[in-house]
Design a protein that fits this description.
This protein is an alpha+beta fold. The chain has one domain: Alpha-Beta Plaits. Helices cover 13% and strands 30% of the residues. The chain has a four-stranded antiparallel sheet, covered by helices on one side. The longest helix is centred in the N-terminal third of the chain and has 7 residues. The N and C termini lie far apart (53 Å).
């Protein structure tokens, strides 16, 4: 399971209007590859934060937004994919954390 955090930036339409008129409340991907959708926004704002949980790997940002019911219309100026802060980070093999030497006060 993977988690994906998207930010849609709008121009010429408020977040509330986009969600009322453009957003699909029952996207076809929900219940299949898409397990859950969590949306945060200010009604008169220009940004919509979307947290998506996928059964497998998350698709590219634009495709993920459309599959989750948030189509990229001309009013959507950008779709940004941010790494979820709660997701565990992978360690690179061969990289160790080395302790810093202690500095003694004189």
């Amino acid at each position: 399971m993977s988690t994906q955090r998207l930010t849609l930036t709008l121009d010429g339409i408020t977040a509330a209007d986009y969600l009322a008129w453009v957003c699909d409340p029952e996207p076809p991907a929900l219940g299949r590859d898409l397990r859950s959708v969590d949306v945060h926004y200010e009604p008169l704002g220009a940004d919509i934060e979307i947290l998506l949980r996928w059964a497998g790997d998350a698709p590219e940002a634009g495709a993920a937004a459309t599959a989750a019911g948030f189509p990229v219309t001309p009013e959507v100026t950008s779709v940004i994919w941010r790494r979820d802060e709660l997701a565990p980070r992978r360690r690179r093999p061969g990289r160790r954390i080395r302790p810093r030497p202690a500095i003694a006060a004189a």
